[in-house]
What we know:
The complex is a heterotrimer.
Chain A (H helix, E strand, L loop, with lengths): L4 E10 L2 E11 L3 E5 L6 H8 L7 E6 L2 E2 L10 E4 L11 H11 L4 H14 L15 H13 L5 E5 L7 H16 L3 E6 L2 H7 L2 E6 L2 E7 H7 L5 E7 L2 H8 L5 E7 L4 E6 L2 H15 L3 E5 L5 H10 L1
Parallel strand pairs in A: 3-8, 3-9, 6-7, 7-8
Antiparallel strand pairs in A: 1-2, 1-4, 4-5, 9-10, 11-13, 11-14, 12-13
Chain B lengths: L20 H14 L2 H28 L6 H7 L4 H5 L5 H27 L2 H8 L3 H5 L5 H35 L4 H31 L5 H40 L11 H32 L8 H13 L1 H9 L4 H11 L6 H22 L8
Chain C lengths: L2 H28 L3 H9 L1 H12 L5 H26 L4 H6 L2 H5 L5 H32 L9 H29 L3 H13 L14 H12 L3 E2 L6 E2 H5 L16 H25 L11
Antiparallel strand pairs in C: 1-2
Helix pairs in contact in C: 1-7, 3-4, 3-7, 4-7, 4-8, 4-9, 7-8, 7-12, 8-9, 8-10, 8-12, 10-12
Amino acid sequence: MKPVVEFDEVSKWYGNVIGVNKLTIRVPAGVTGLLGPNGAGKSTLLQLATGQLFPSQGTVTVLGQRVWGNTSLNRFIGLCPEQDAFYEWMTGWDFIHTCARLGGLNRIDAKDAAGRALESVGMTKNKDRAVRGYSKGMRQRTKLAQALVHDPEVLFLDEPMTGTDPVARRDLMDIIQRLGGEGKSVMVSSHVLHEVQSLTPNIILMNRGRLVAEGNIREIRELIDKHPHHIVLVCNEYRKLAARLVEWDDVEGVKVLARAQGLMVETRSPDAFYGRLPQLSLEAGTAIDEVYSDDDNLEAVFKYLVNK
Amino acid sequence: MPIFDPGYQHWSGELSGHGWRWLAIARHGYRIGMKNYLLRIIMLVAWIPAIALGFMLCLWGLVERKSELVMPLVAMLDMFDPEVIANPKEYRAEIWTLCYDTFLLMELRFSMILVLIVGPSLISQDLRFNALPLYFSRPLRRIDYFMGKLGVIGAFLGMVLIIPSIVAYVLGLLFSLDLSIIPDTLPLLAASVGYGIVMTLSTGLFILALSSLTRNSRYIALFWLAVWFISSVVGGVLASVDQEHRRHAAYRRSAEISVAQPNANRPPADRQREQAARMADTRQMRQQEWLAEEQQAAKSNWRPMVSYTANLSRIGQAMLNTDAAWRKLSLNKPAEERDRFLLENLGSQYPWYWSAAVILGLMGLSACILNFRIKSLDRLK
Amino acid sequence: MTTAALRSAHDSSYLASLWTLFVLAVRQHLHGKRWMVMAALFVLPALLAVVIRATASDAPSIWLEFILIFMFIPQALLPLVALVYSSGIIQDEQEDQTLTYLLIRPIPRWSIYVVKLLAALVMTVILTAIFTTLTYIVIHVGADSAVTNLPSRCAKAVVIHSTAVVAYCCLFGLIGLMTKRALVVGIIYAAVVEGILANLPLSIRMVTVIYYTRIMAYRSMEFIADVPHKGLDIAAGAWKLDSKVDPQLSEHPSLALCVLILGVASMIFTTIAAVMCSRREFHVKTPEGS
């Protein structure tokens, strides 16, 4: 599948500070999470992808075309920027309509598009209020609406959930998932891991301007050889179970969690472990009340890769 | 061995009182201001008049002591009347007054530039980056905030107005080696420090009020410039129009007056001499009338008051009592030159309290604007 | 859709974007109190005329016109209004962090600059025209004025001032892109170059906008006063034009040449600024220099 966004050996530096360092990424269609701690280079990457910055080295292409200086490409790109800045004196509708017109839509199309965009983000009711009177969630929705108004093929969302309450956050996530379902390519930058995880399994993980990992969360997790998976088992006869578990070759460690009445098992083959566990429980005569792993998620991946 | 918690610890010491809260804001603003390269250069240049003031006061001290080092130099420069050089102690207060007057006039311009660089961003940046809740969520009153911001202006103006005045005074004392200088000149020191305080309060409140009106400090700077230059230009235009109007009126009046013809029976040469003498007398008379008219008009000429800086300098002139100094120096001039000398050197002659009223009015307006624009936390949006 | 139809649709959408940007820029100028402050400043010459009329009613109108309209306005007000409107064409949007919304639209960057400059020019020219006319009315109407053909003089003054303010706007717009301290540079330029160099009777004054403004005014109008001396050429004296030795001012450019020079200079400044804008990155999120 042809990548929607392509970074080829891209570096960007500001004086002596490197923003991104030899980045080579091919972002497929669909929803992709862009993750990293503060200062990782996520915003720099998005600004390079939207043509606001010129790469010091390498090339950036979106939909097969170079971005820098190619303003006609902006017709197909939408950006929801991180900064909370508007023409505060405008109403929501006025702002979106102006953005539609700036995008080249004629008067009638712009009017329809503005109405649709506001409807899609749930801002129809408040469209005639000045932006300066909006709450944080309303401002984020309005920012998203201006990114959608010209019906772009590719969307870049820079920390869209910042400062929003849980309800607004849920609504925004629903909107993003719907956009992905409609066939748009969406790149969502965030450091709120569980939100990105609920949006998409495909991630790009950055740290200190470098690409750390790219792809499916599970696949990445499995590739992290250094860190065995941690699986917690809760049962009454946990010591008896522990004695049986240490006999397995792929179990690297067992830690007793006396307070939780359970065990934490370290293994490099979680799938195989899960497969054998029910049989073990029957044979040992020990009922297992609970099985879970905090490891098989984005936070674990993030922690292992960023903090190493 | 005790184990200590390296985490957050409550402050167990004593908190300072409200009286000094503003100092933290002032200190911070001063530090930020001093990072500005342009500001540092302006301050260095602003010290040149201060050095010149110190030099002049030291020079006068040496003149009073009839130092052989400086007497030839002073004679060569021909800056003072011989009578003044002959009795320097008699004219000590006047010379010091005029030196301080010149210094403060020059520093007035530098002060306006310093306020232009430092002042516009004082409150506008806090509005732009929504820092007011950060201030007022602490035990900080609005008055502490305003005083802190005013303290920033005061720090910079103090460094170019007040401190140089004091340092120059001390230097002048040291070079004079005469204790009687203190009662003669102490009022000058008090006046210059007082003028510095007036400048700080007036310009500080004004620029803070302007700074609170918008989040874009560039427009505030431009407006400050407009107040400074355009008000000066407008005042100058009004004053020159008024003067031209009086000059034209005098010209028309003089055209109507005819000079009496000399006796036709006298020889032509004598008639010519008499004619010339009468014309000279008439010119002299018209000149005297013109000077008297100008002096009279100056007492009620309100036009310079349109200029903001002219009001400040009028107050400085009154505090230093420069008019008295010029009048005493004019006594050394021939009688026929005295009026012209005073006309050229005396500043504005309208009552100083008119300017004081303008300055106080502006300060009051500034305070109202600040009170309206900067609200406490419970009333911030 | 055929290629021609596609191109036509593309062109019309591009023009629609530019028009919207222009309207947005004008609305930004009109919104808020900035234009009111500028109007208050511009009304000063008219107010001065009223005050002078009240206190010195026999002041010759031609003299008032010269001082207020041909000295005060071009020397003090035009550079100031140009600084206010043009030095922050891009910088203001960058500081407000709204520039992103323009950069991510299908509008070339040089177009963004040119259109916003155009909006600034429209505002400044309108302000200049209105208040120059107002000042003329206050000075001459109702006064015992010996000046003839007042509408023509007013129109000429408006055109001359508009040409000057366009040149100032283009220059300060370029300065605004070249340096963060556009205000300081603009003030120094106005004070030193336009304020001091322009008043020297030397060739160096030919690098100033106000020199050409004065030549245009001198060549298209007369400034002859009867008081204090009959037939006194006020402008020649004040502007140090040696009209006694060279009545035709043959060493000075013609009217058309003045307009051409100012026009070409404005175009050059605008072109350089547009090129700079198209090649430059604008750091909206992180302040530049940090």
